[in-house]
Amino acid sequence: MRISYSSIFFILILYSQLSAAAVGRDPYVYFFNESWGNYQEELVKAKQEGKKGVLLFFEMEDCPWCQRMKRTVLNQPEVQEYFRKHFLSFSVDIEGDVGIVDFKGLSFTQKEFAEKINRVRATPVFGIYDLEGNQVVRFTGATSSVDEFMWLGEFYLDGHYKNTNFTKYKRQKKRASQQGK
Asked: Could you say which of 38, 101, 105, 137 would form a disulfide bridge with 128 (CB–CB 3.0 to 4.6 Å)?
């Protein structure tokens, strides 16, 4: 059997595209929004842009679960597009000394904001804030899948957080998806 150079070239192109799709896109470019660290101003911007809330991802550099979330969930185009449509999303380094202004206009370092205001001790933590700057959803740990992370966004956007907790909501979603098979 003889393989032509054009066949090899085609296979290499196809393989590189599949590999790129599996790897995903850089979450710091496609998931997180740029910020100057003034979350009070970000709330105004979110309202002006028609967003439904602000998502904060509390992380630290050496956290394997944070890395896993960025490598397997936050890098996925469908996640990035969905969250960019509905939220402004920012990363907060829980060990960081960079100054920020919180949703009430008070100044802190990222470390102080994470620890004293948001009581973040383990990472990752996802906080979803309404357009008044109130944290209404909190999820600690890495989600098990892209679906589970998307359900977290839906949980807030559809207002389910007002009537139930996320654990019950995701149980219902899992049951519904298994019945649909």
From this structure: 137
Give per-residue pLDDT as tens, 50-84. Answer: 999 999 999 999 999 999 999 999 999 999 999 99
Neighbours of 158 (CB within 10 A): 11
Edge-to-edge strands of the sheet including 53-59? 87-93, 53-59, 125-129, 135-140
Give backbone dihedrals phi and psi of 37, rounded to 5 degrees, phi first.
85, 15
Question: Is the torsion defined by CA of 34, 101, 50, 47 positive or negative?
Answer: negative
Pairing between β-strand 125-129 and β-strand 135-140 as defined by DSSP bridges: antiparallel
72 burial type by CB count under 10 A (0-12 exposed, 13-18 middle, 19+ buried): middle
Residue 157 burial (10 A CB sphere; 0-12, 13-18, 19+): middle
pLDDT tens profile 147-165: 999 999 999 999 999 999 9
